[in-house]
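Quick review question:
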């Protein structure tokens, strides 16, 4: 029996997925771009629209990183505005638990849930570096275990605020036509090692009660945090084998928290390149990869691994013979990808072996090592691949990341979604009104 999948649309953040040089590439600032992607996702009956957020512009060599977007609007502002131009699509955003405060974030999400009639979702993340913390009064660095302690307490506190209003706390005064809160409505008090607050929460309970909780950490702490608290978890695992291992691992953790396997939805991020035939798609995918990683971009990626200035190197030449500088990365600041190379010497060795085996240049190595194309083929091939992954328990669906914004989702919605619907692998219409309804959590 074909299992019905979940689909979400990611408005791309700042990375080498987006092809800025494509004639169809638009603004990451103008509201019309967000509207286009969100409305297309809703037309295709997607579960939700997802907007990532960074708290500081990333730097490399003391300058703003070439692929960063200067001027991206605030996440809550965009999502609240999208609530007015969509009707059923879930609206989710990344909001940091390290440098924000529970009362403020809970009030914003409760407001969004009311404005959207129950379609809000919160991707709870932590921040890993002091560089980002410099933007905040409570700056500094938190070790990974401490970040997740704060995130856990943060979410617990926000949940207490959401739950401080109960059904019936806002009865109507029929004579005056007003609504009057009952005594005690919204009252909260929290005292622990992270927060020392008390007062009265100002926003009544939203249509969902609380926003859908999403989580993106892949570490041991992140997986445990998701098993305990999240409704959905994002993952980077792109192969069937890696996906099945991750899926089985996070699902088995749920029982310890009294939860069932269906209470956590596993959603890998996925890119796609469509063609009329598989051969045409393969040719286009190669073009896209070279557009995503220019020579200049290849050198920037290499510097993140080597932790040294490599601007004098030819991207079409061989990898540097010098080894990476081990220790704190002082070249690239604020980039999460730096954390992926915890052993830069081993990474350099691996890249050199690849280059020697295939006679690859710097740019060609970076293209091969940073490729993000999960699905390449005709609409039928991509639909079958997605169905197979979901039925094989490698995931419950996908967060699609188009390489052109804002119109990159359009061909998928027009050509692949109808095939998924014909196979019974995706809904033909919404059956509920809230994001919880869409996800079944």
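Suggested answer, residue by residue:
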């Amino acid at each position: 029996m074909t299992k019905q999948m979940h689909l979400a649309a990611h408005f791309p953040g700042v990375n080498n997925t987006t092809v800025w040089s494509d004639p169809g590439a638009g603004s990451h600032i103008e509201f019309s771009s967000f509207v286009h992607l969100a409305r297309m996702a809703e037309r295709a009956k997607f579960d939700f629209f997802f907007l990532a957020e960074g708290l500081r512009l990333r730097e490399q060599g003391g300058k703003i990183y070439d692929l960063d977007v200067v001027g991206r609007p605030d996440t809550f502002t965009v999502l609240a505005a999208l609530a007015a131009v969509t009707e059923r699509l879930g609206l989710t955003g990344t909001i940091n638990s390290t440098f924000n405060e529970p009362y403020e974030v809970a009030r914003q999400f409760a407001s969004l849930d009311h404005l959207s009639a129950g379609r809000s979702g919160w991707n709870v993340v932590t921040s890993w570096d002091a560089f980002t913390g410099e933007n905040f009064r409570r700056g500094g660095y938190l070790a990974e275990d401490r970040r997740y302690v704060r995130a856990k307490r943060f979410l617990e506190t926000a949940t207490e605020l959401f739950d401080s209003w109960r059904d019936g706390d806002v009865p109507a005064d029929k004579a005056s036509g007003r609504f009057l809160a009952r005594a005690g409505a919204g009252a909260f008090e929290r005292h622990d090692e992270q927060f020392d607050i008390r007062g009265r929460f100002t926003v009544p309970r939203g249509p969902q009660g609380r926003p859908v909780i999403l989580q993106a950490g892949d570490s041991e702490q992140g997986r445990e945090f998701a098993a305990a608290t999240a409704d959905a978890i994002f993952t980077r695992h792109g192969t069937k084998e890696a996906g099945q291992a991750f899926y089985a691992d996070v699902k088995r953790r749920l029982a310890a928290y009294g939860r069932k396997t269906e209470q956590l939805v596993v959603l890998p991020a996925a890119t796609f390149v469509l063609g009329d035939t598989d051969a045409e798609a393969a040719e286009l995918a190669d073009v896209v990869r070279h557009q995503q990683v220019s020579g200049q971009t290849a050198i920037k990626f290499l510097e993140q691994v080597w932790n040294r200035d490599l601007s004098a190197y030819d991207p079409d030449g061989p990898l540097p013979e010098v080894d990476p500088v081990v220790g704190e990365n002082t070249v690239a600041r604020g980039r999460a990808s730096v954390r992926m190379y915890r052993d830069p010497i081993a990474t350099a060795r691996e890249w050199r072996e690849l280059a020697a085996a295939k006679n690859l240049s710097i740019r060609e190595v970076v293209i091969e090592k940073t490729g993000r194309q999960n699905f390449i083929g005709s609409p039928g091939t991509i639909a079958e691949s997605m169905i197979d992954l979901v039925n094989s328990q490698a995931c419950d669906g996908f967060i699609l990341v188009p390489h052109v914004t804002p119109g990159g989702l359009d061909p998928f919605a027009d050509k692949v979604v109808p095939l998924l619907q014909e196979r019974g692998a995706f809904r033909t219409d919404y059956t509920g009104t809230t994001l919880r309804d869409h996800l079944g959590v």
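Why it works: The two ends are 21 Å apart (CA to CA). The chain has a mean pLDDT of 91.
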